[in-house]
Amino acid sequence: MDAVLVTRSVYSFVELSVSPVFQRQWSSIYEALEDSNPPREELMRLYIKQLPQTEQIILAGDHTAWSRLDAKTLKERTFEHQAQPISGAKPVTIGQGYSTVAIIPEAEGSWALPLLHERITSFENPIEKAAAQLKLVCQNLPTRPLSLWDAEYGCASFVKQTADIAADKLMRLRSNRVLYSAPPDYTGIGRPRVHGDKFKLNDQTTWWTPDEMFEILDSKLGRVSLRLWCNLHFQQ
Known about the structure:
The chain is α+β, with helices and mostly antiparallel strands. Helix content is 18%, strand content 26%. It has three domains: 1-36, no CATH class; 39-172, Transposase Inhibitor Protein From Tn5, Chain A, domain 1; 174-236, no CATH class.
């Protein structure tokens, strides 16, 4: 750690062993990685204790890929989604996926405090990994948080797996998602309906009158109009 802190730039991991403050053999760098097991949960609890008292804690969860195209001997390399800078290229890479749950401590700014940052193994998927992390984090928080999620988590699977977790969830939905209203009352003929009318996000002709509407005048964004529909559900 001393070598990491005093070295301005490192082009390979083994370069840390040539730092003047590193007084061991170079192989001990790799031995430290192989033998170490960071106490993730203890560190998470320590971070939470340092948080200032706020009205509501804001969490953010995400799944990111670490591309390792040339590391052919790396264990458990998997196919990961990664946006490509070249137009028309498939958004796929080979490497490892990581799931992160972080605290967003400020309304403005670009930094966050990761509470859990763990690799998604080949036996897991991003949804179940994020749900397990959110549950562990919320069990150690003093108040009920608001958690923010990207469109990858805007699905029935994530909603089901986090239904019993004491956290509010605000998630983005893909534009081609279809939701359903509550089914109408049973008429007594045939099989009772499971779903009501379709609500297609990309087809405004399927939208009915909102249950509530809000208008907010923001100093930076100008007028913001919000529409709220209640009691919509996924097909699953």
